[in-house]
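Researcher: Quick test of sequence recovery. Tokens follow.
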């Protein structure tokens, strides 16, 4: 594979000009402020609520959270880190960014901190998750939660309709179930899928459908493949399923919107991140507690099709308060934090998919008995060998692990969303998307 380009997004300077926040590590009245940029997902919001305990145990350290929706958080964190803006002491990134940014020299090497913290136990991290955050054998980010993808479904609705969910369903079977369970008059969609633009939004589930239908973004010579028969079949299937049996407003629905709909009983099935399960089973946010079954990601031509992803914490290289930043990060990602969430909030709110020991806690095993094993199974099978039919020149399952994908993926997702909304045809969307991908592929062929 050609060496990854070290590109800084062109919009970085403009985004930084709009942030208007104080510099990281600001000092006042003898106190230290750590600025932490996170994605506003439920598990992260729980961490914000519990962070008063960290501040109490660390006098003089104040935490300031910048919590944003996924697309906005990605843009702001990327802009700040790439340009060494210094706004943040701690940033929430994923296994897409971690190895690339480590190679670029943008992140602090965490291996000395990981190994030098008694009881932190990095060997307790699920190996595939730990490895995805490493570069040249060193961890550059530590996982807060890990995930693959699977399908949840309403067991009561299936029973009422006389349907049985197989343990390893195909997408064709899921489409058939969606058609039978779709109840537009009753306000229940046959299935909920992401249609919201964003390379980390709609393209995450969509790319897994492409993979299992036999498609890929680029062949081994970096020729774009977005108009190949396999990619086209997957796109038509995904768009048709959403338009015919998906949720209302599908073109603007992401993880959060689908979670709200499913949790309020407005969808019979939902294919998304395995982390959804905790929210589905939380009485504070869900009306369908105990009514859901969980099964592996639907397939077509492959053995499995789930993705591999982890939201993690990292320290920008320019951060001045590295030890204080690490102290907070290890607090938020250690074994004691898992127990704190379970005992003080709910065992269904525990950040899943990171530590093996989490799945040995009796209270968690009981609370998560419907989805704990499916989650571990999905993560363990999340590799290119089992989820793709052809070799590819890039890392990643639900993303293409190159810097340009932030822009390319977003552009393609906008075309996909427009097709879901009925503004353009799938063929028109793919023709335009192919042009975007060809430009990127040509740049990698030139480097080979």
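Model:
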């Amino acid at each position: 594979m050609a060496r990854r380009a070290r590109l800084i997004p062109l919009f970085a300077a403009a985004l930084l000009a709009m942030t208007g926040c104080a510099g990281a590590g600001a000092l006042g009245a003898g106190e230290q402020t750590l600025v932490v940029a996170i994605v506003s997902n439920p598990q992260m919001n729980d961490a914000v609520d519990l962070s008063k305990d960290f501040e109490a145990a660390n006098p003089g350290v104040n935490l300031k959270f910048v919590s944003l929706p996924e697309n906005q958080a990605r843009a702001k964190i990327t802009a700040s880190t790439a340009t060494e803006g210094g706004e943040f002491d701690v940033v929430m990134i994923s296994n897409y960014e971690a190895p690339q940014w480590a190679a670029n020299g943008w992140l602090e090497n965490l291996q000395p901190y990981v190994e030098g913290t008694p009881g932190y136990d990095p060997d307790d991290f699920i190996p595939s998750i730990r490895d995805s955050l490493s570069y040249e054998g060193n961890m550059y980010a530590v996982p807060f939660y890990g995930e693959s993808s699977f399908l949840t479904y309403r067991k009561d609705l299936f029973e009422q309709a006389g349907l049985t969910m197989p343990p390893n369903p195909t997408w064709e079977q899921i489409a058939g179930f969606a058609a039978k369970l779709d109840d537009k008059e009753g306000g229940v969609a046959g299935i909920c899928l992401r249609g919201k633009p964003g390379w980390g939004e709609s393209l995450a589930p969509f790319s897994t459908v492409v993979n299992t239908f036999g498609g890929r973004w680029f062949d081994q010579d970096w020729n774009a493949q977005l108009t190949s028969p396999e990619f086209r079949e997957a796109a038509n299937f995904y768009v048709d399923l959403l338009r015919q049996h998906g949720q209302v407003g599908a073109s603007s629905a992401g993880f959060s919107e689908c979670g709200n709909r499913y949790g309020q009983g407005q969808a019979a099935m939902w294919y998304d991140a395995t982390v959804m399960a905790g929210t589905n089973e939380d009485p504070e946010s869900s009306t369908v507690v105990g009514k859901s079954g969980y099964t592996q990601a639907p397939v077509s031509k492959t053995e499995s099709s789930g993705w591999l992803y982890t939201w993690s914490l990292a320290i920008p290289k320019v951060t001045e308060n590295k030890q204080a930043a690490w102290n907070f990060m290890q607090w938020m990602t250690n074994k004691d934090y898992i127990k704190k969430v379970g005992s003080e909030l709910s065992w269904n709110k525990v950040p899943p998919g990171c530590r093996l020991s989490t799945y040995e806690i009796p209270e968690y095993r009981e609370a998560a008995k419907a989805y704990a094993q499916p989650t571990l199974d999905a993560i363990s099978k999340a590799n290119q060998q089992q989820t793709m039919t052809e070799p590819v020149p890039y890392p990643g399952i639900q993303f293409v692990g190159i810097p340009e994908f932030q822009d390319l993926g977003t552009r393609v997702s906008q075309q996909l969303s427009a097709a879901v909304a009925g503004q353009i045809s799938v063929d028109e969307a793919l023709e335009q998307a192919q042009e975007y991908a060809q430009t990127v592929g040509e740049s990698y062929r030139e480097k080979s």
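The chain has two domains: 12-146+310-369, 149-306+386-447.
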